[in-house]
User: Which sequence fits this backbone?
């Protein structure tokens, strides 16, 4: 069984470093190289928002997660639900 490659979406956390055009170019390269999944999280600053703006979910599976100990608030069911609701 082949190994699935998953791209780390934390790379796209800052819109001043990764402009929309460069994110779209990176997504094209990922697609050409048969990468079908992007991993992200609320803790990756604006990664989820930027991936949404370039419509990445139309062509990729977006895996997001609750970052637990990296979040400022305690891990509670409400905190997890709020984080997921704010996600893509």
Assistant:
């Amino acid at each position: 069984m082949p190994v699935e490659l998953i791209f780390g979406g934390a790379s796209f956390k800052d819109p001043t470093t990764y402009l929309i055009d460069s994110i779209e170019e990176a997504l094209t390269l990922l697609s050409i190289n048969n990468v079908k999944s992007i991993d992200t999280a609320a803790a990756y600053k604006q990664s989820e928002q930027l991936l949404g703006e370039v419509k990445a979910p139309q062509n990729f599976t977006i895996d997001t997660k609750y970052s637990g100990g990296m979040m400022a608030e305690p891990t509670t069911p409400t905190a997890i639900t709020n984080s997921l609701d704010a996600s893509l």
